[in-house]
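Weekly modeling sync, notes
Attendees: AB, CL, MP (scribe)

Item 1: holo prediction request
CL wants a bound-state model with 1,3-dihydroxyacetonephosphate before deciding which constructs to order. AB pointed out that an apo prediction alone won't tell us much about the pocket. Agreed to run with the ligand included and paste results into these notes for async review.

Input as submitted:
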Amino acid sequence: MSLKKQYLIANWKMELLPKEERALLEKLPLVLKKKKKSLKVIVCPSFVSLVSATQIKKYSSAIFDVGAQDCHWEERGAYTGEISAKALVSLGCRYVLIGHSERRVHNNEDETVLRNKLQAAFNARLQPIFCIGETRDDRTNGKTLSRLRQQLSSAFSNCTMKRNQLICIAYEPVWSIGSGTPLNADDLTKEIQFIKEWLTTHLSSHPHVVLYGGSVDERSVSNYLSPKTGIDGLLVGSASQSVKRLSKIVSLMSLS
Ligand code: 13P
């Protein structure tokens, strides 16, 4: 990783109860005490804990941002059970995950839905973290880069963004998520470079960051910290859901 800003995004998915998320949030001041300044930590709890998260951020000494795990594509309307990007911003959220493979698979989110969600987040001034990644079959069939190209171009085609809007991409190979098998840090340079080149070519007036996610934990995190990987940060699932493991990851990232 380079000396510029690094990102650590904690995706708590639907793994914890509100009281467990609150307990973790209350420990954040301790967890983040020794965090280096250039490490940007973004916590994405479930919807029901977003209010707690933004309040704890406001009233504690911990320096972190709050992200949601999803948003709807419309600004408001008769969409029972949904939450708009604007509502998230009004709570104090600054980030939102869009296109996570678990939503693509379990909620059938297709390219049109994802493009609309991305646009809704940009319109509401909520920073999207757009997730892309190939399946095991794509990789076996040598289709990794074409899958990434297709996901990027369908999401960002005709997207309206303000000048200098940051583009944040999380590269998460679907087969590595929750599998305990991360993509080896030495092996992902090609994908990270490909994504960065695509962004430089097609969205040249926008700064970008590219993160890696998929079974990163406290044992493997150091492998991703070399500037050689080209990675600007990490999106961590299960290893970010306990105080001990999250602390270890923050400390290791703060050493680099
Ligand atoms: P794991 O770190 O549990 O593999 O999850 C990765 C992920 O999906 C983060 O969004």
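Recorded for review: The chain has a mean pLDDT of 95.
Action items: CL to compare against the apo run; MP to circulate these notes.
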